[in-house]
Amino acid sequence: MPTKSGKVGIGIVGAKFAGELHATSYARCADAEMVAACSNRPEELEEFTARFGIKKSYLDYRELVKDPEVDIVSICVPNFLHYEVAMAACEAGKHVVCEKPLATTIEHAREMVEAFEKKGLKLMYAEDWNFAPALVRAKQIVDEGAIGEILYIRAKESHNGSHSPFAQKLEYCGGGALLHLGCHPAAFVRYITGQEVVEVVASVTGGLDENLVHKGLEGEDFGVALLTLANGTRAVIEGNYVTQGGMDDCVEIYGTKGVVKVDLTFGSPISVYSSVGYSYVLEKADMSTGWTKPAVDEFYSLGYQTELAEFVRCVKEDLPVPQGARGIDGLMTLAIIKAAYQSAVEGRPVDPRDLV
Ligand SMILES: NC(=O)c1ccc[n+]([C@@H]2O[C@H](COP(=O)([O-])OP(=O)(O)OC[C@H]3O[C@@H](n4cnc5c(N)ncnc54)[C@H](O)[C@@H]3O)[C@@H](O)[C@H]2O)c1
After folding, report:
1. Is residue 86 in contact with ligand 1, taking CB distance under 6 Å?
2. What is the secondary structure of 48-60 as a DSSP string?
3. 128 CB near ligand 1 (under 6 Å)
4. Helix, strand, or coil here: 20?
5. Contact (CB, 8 A) for 222 and 240
């Protein structure tokens, strides 16, 4: 390992919301050392590096990827930059952890997968749901046969809208709520079943004036898709920005011999009644008075901590990236969402494999 400490050297590109999720998680990983960070906003970068004790700062990601102490480039910038940062890292011989979605277009995602394969480098797709302890436990129970064969999965992520200005314009982000939020259930459905999606039928709001609530958002603020998997299993996935009261992530798995239900965000063991409020309840919650269910530790419960520790281990021990977290999984997840968009426009089922 090139870091003086012998740990896996991390360079984080993007120093705000997702940057904090990654930095907090790497800080908890004994085998990782955050050696560098990058943002094109100097003040934000200064605050971020000081907070996480990161010694090297770069305003240009092209410099960070060349840093000899960096083994993994963690991509936490807006969607439209994932492709160019990943390709620059690949060119510089670095492994990459890429936030969702893998890219804004199928063409870019495919190019990324091919480039990393060609160079023998790891492209790790950061689908945190696959590492969230409650969903990991649910998968163990399903794999053990507790609910028989999976017949149907219903899964969603929803909240009241993205905080990021880049998520407002399609040119920068590539889609609306179904892409940003629905990508989690889409990826999880492939992961837990081990099956490819062969047909997508979807309905989405049309963006801007056609949205339910967010009339300034170019992408949809509500999207739902019915997926058919290769073995006939059905899944309904949903992403919406019309949910008040905090981020609501739910998964229900119906099998021939039972059912598993997971409430990923409101399942806290803590109940608080406060007449004056307090600083933080859970992601996207805008009130803290009355009865609330505060998250205990979202870095852990939403999967980031385990996910990034696993990626560090993959690099340290040169292990294959687990199914569900490979570049190809990011590509197929993007294809499901793009198939949903095509289905919604054309009013017919679309096979995502035809888009890849
Ligand atoms: N897995 C999850 O649950 C999850 C949660 C939030 C965000 N994300 C993903 O993380 C990514 C970032 O989202 P965010 O919410 O942190 O966005 P953000 O707007 O909060 O932060 C983006 C960061 O990128 C920096 N940046 C922008 N352009 C840059 C450039 N050219 N060079 C260097 N830095 C640049 C900004 O300065 C900022 O630090 C998105 O792709 C988003 O989909 C994933």
Report:
1. no
2. HHHHHT--EEESS
3. yes
4. helix
5. yes
Confidence grade of residue 2 (pLDDT, cut at 50, 70, 90): low
Q: Is the CB of 166 under 6 A from ligand 1?
A: yes
Which pair of structure tokens corresponds to residue 237? 């996935």
Diameter over CA atoms, the chain:
59
Distance CA 57, CA 326 (A): 28
* 60 C-beta closer than 6 A to ligand 1: no
pTM: 0.97
In the chain, % of residues over pLDDT 90: 97
Task: Report the mean per-residue pLDDT for the chain.
Answer: 97
At 1 the pLDDT is 52
- Ligand 1 atom index nearest CA of 162: 15
- Whole-Å CA distances, 117 to 90, 270, 313: 10, 45, 19
Structure tokens at 147: 């609910």
* Mean pLDDT computed over 154-171: 94
Distance 80 CA to ligand 1 centre (A): 10
Give the separation between CA 173 and CA 227, rounded to whole angstroms.
Answer: 23
Q: Which atom of ligand 1 is the closest one to the Cα of 166?
A: 19
Could you give the domains of the chain?
A: 8-129 (3.40.50.720), 134-303+334-355 (3.30.360.10)
User: For residues 111 and 121, what is the distance between their CA atoms, to the nearest angstrom?
Assistant: 14
Alpha carbon distances (Å) from 127 to 34, 183, 300, 307: 21, 9, 14, 8
Q: Which atom of ligand 1 is nearest to the CA of 45?
A: 39
Is the CB of 327 within 6 Å of ligand 1?
no
Dig out the tokens for 55 from the structure: 């010694």
